Amino acid sequence: MIILKSSDELKAMRRAGRVVAQAHELVRDLIKPGVSTLELDAAVEEFLLKMNSIPAFKGYHGYPATICASVNEVVVHGIPNRDIILEEGSIIGIDIGAFVDGFCGDSAWTYPVGEIDQTVAALLETTEQALYKGIDQAIVGNRLSDISHAVQKHVEERGFSVVRDFVGHGIGRDMHEEPQIPNFGPPGRGPRLKSGMTLAIEPMVNVGDYYVEVLADNWTVVTRDRSWSAHFEHTVAITDEGPEILTSL
Ligand code: CO
Question: Which CATH superfamily does the domain covering 7-245 fall into?
Answer without folding.
Answer: Creatinase/methionine aminopeptidase superfamily (3.90.230.10)
